[in-house]
Amino acid sequence: MNRKTSRGNRWGLALIGSVLFVLGGLVAARGLGGFGSAQTPIVDGGVRQFFAGSGPAIWWVVAIVAIVVALLALRWLLVQTRREVTHRPIRLERSPTGFSEVSADGVADAVAADVASSPAVLSADAGVADSHYPPEVRLRVVADERAPIGELRWHLSAIALQHLRDALNSDHVHAVARVSLEPPPASHRMVH
Amino acid sequence: MTAATGAGTFAVPGQRPAPPPPEVRGRTRIADQVVTKIACCAAGEVPEVLRVRPGGGTWRSPSSDAEVHGEQAAVYLSVSVAYPSPLREVAARVRQHVIARVAAQTGLDVTHLDVTITDFGGDLS
């Protein structure tokens, strides 16, 4: 699941929650006698008359609305399988006599190793977001909380991403880095 | 034909007909594995290439392979290169060198060549 899917999930769940909340409130109000007596049926004569007077076309509208809702729900289900990173190779070039491509995992490993070479970094992981050229890179960095953040930023932009730009022959490589700060492991702590 | 000598006569074998030229006396077929080997060696000669994956890989870790069809060959190479070398240029150099080397050593025309960079290693600097 990628960030776009997570954002969609939040909006979808908020929408459904709001609808259910409003419906629940209406039902509760009805039970408490807010809209007439709780003993009278909800589908009364007026509703029956509306459907009877609209003719068969109303049922076609209901069916179409139900199908649209079902398709939206199916699409929502399918986008859950979208992943933040891809493992498909990145196409470098294609010609009538063959193609050249590079493994997305290979690129991710190389970038992660470059990032992890900084003394400020405790661990690093990378992924390639899509197989287009140049690819977008996602970095997850665990840095030493005592390390200057400027040094880490310099290392990312001037070493790790510069190497990637050199490798891809591209002036611009889009990258998203999520940095979390943690205390260093006990074996790395200085004892005074 | 007979020849006379002091001791008697003996038969001299007749002149055999000239053999056909060498190029029509059979057929030379270059196996796929030979082309694979030549292509792998040629790819390994490109300075930025650290390793060439030999045959026998899977779809997740592709390997190098070649197919010979008559006078033409298709080559599939999986290589590991130094990081951060310019990938497009390295792939183009591999392509150029492998095509030239296979043609020089076998006379085959490489009509299709795929280059897959599977991983990186070392430091170019």
TrEMBL record, chain A:
Entry keywords, A to Z: Membrane, Transmembrane, Transmembrane helix
Keyword Membrane: yes
Superkingdom to which the source organism belongs: Bacteria
Transmembrane segments: 57-78
UniProt key word Transmembrane helix: yes
Name of the protein this chain belongs to: Alkaline shock response membrane anchor protein AmaP
TrEMBL record, chain B:
A Pfam family assignment: Asp23
UniProt-annotated stretches for the region Disordered: 1-25
Annotated InterPro entries: Asp23 (IPR005531)
Similarity field: Belongs to the asp23 family.
Protein's recorded name: Uncharacterized conserved protein YloU, alkaline shock protein (Asp23) family
Species in which this protein is naturally found: Nonomuraea wenchangensis
